From TrEMBL:
<feature type="domain" description="EVE">
    <location>
        <begin position="2"/>
        <end position="148"/>
    </location>
</feature>
<dbReference type="InterPro" id="IPR015947">
    <property type="entry name" value="PUA-like_sf"/>
</dbReference>
<dbReference type="Pfam" id="PF01878">
    <property type="entry name" value="EVE"/>
</dbReference>
<dbReference type="InterPro" id="IPR052181">
    <property type="entry name" value="5hmC_binding"/>
</dbReference>
<dbReference type="InterPro" id="IPR047197">
    <property type="entry name" value="THYN1-like_EVE"/>
</dbReference>
<dbReference type="InterPro" id="IPR002740">
    <property type="entry name" value="EVE_domain"/>
</dbReference>
<protein>
    <submittedName>
        <fullName>EVE domain-containing protein</fullName>
    </submittedName>
</protein>
Length: 153
DNA sequence: GCCAACGTTGGC
DNA sequence: GCCAACGTTGGC
């Protein structure tokens, strides 16, 4: 099993929205960055755990946990000509973008804020700290355990 | 295949 | 809303 971090803008789709969704499950679509795409397509497996991170908001933070319950599979939004994520170069035979289904697991009582992550010398290697713009990134088991520990304090 | 221009992300 | 960082595009 692997660990990941997924960013979302809570104004558009929050962890609370995921919790309230049917079965607490949603398709994680609209990722349009190749590095992020490669993590989804080549790395993600059913059963992997993911941190949900709220970005572009008052207090950017890791706010809880979800789990991958389906996929990866071709992101359906790339074929929707009327949608914002349409990609005219993508075909069913050669899809360009990929999705997984994620299911709600947990909301942290104490979210791990970006401020705390940046200030913590023990979290030197977390990708969130280094490459701020990536929307899908791997998390090591050590980082996962450490961050869960902070969130439960 | 280089690189300048451009667009997007996301913290502040 | 500003702007730095950085990914993508397209001319050459």
């Amino acid at each position: 099993m692997a660990y990941w971090l997924l960013k979302t803008e809570p104004d558009a789709f929050s962890l609370a929205d995921l919790k309230a969704a049917p079965n607490g499950t949603t398709v994680w679509d609209g990722v349009r960055n190749y590095q992020a795409r490669n993590f989804i397509r080549d790395g993600m497996k059913v059963g992997d755990k993911v941190f949900i991170y709220h970005s572009s908001c008052k207090v950017p933070a890791i706010v809880g946990v979800a789990e991958i319950v389906n996929g990866p599979y071709a992101d359906p939004s790339q074929f929707d000509a009327s949608g914002d994520y349409y990609d005219p170069k993508a075909t069913a035979e050669a899809p360009r973008w990929f999705s997984v289904d994620v299911q709600y697991r947990e909301t942290f009582n104490k979210p791990v804020t970006l401020q705390a992550i940046k200030a913590d010398p023990a979290i030197e290697e977390l990708a969130l700290k280094k490459s701020g713009r990536l929307s899908v990134m791997p998390v090591t088991e050590q980082e996962w355990q450490y961050l869960c520990g902070i969130a439960s304090k």
